[in-house]
Amino acid sequence: MSRTQRSARNARNLDGRRRLADTILVATVLLTPESAEQLERLPKTIHARVLKLIERLKAWPDVSGAKPLSGDLAGKYRLRTGDYRLRFSVKGETVTVEKIGHRSDFYEY
Question: Total structural domains in the chain?
Answer without folding.
Answer: 1
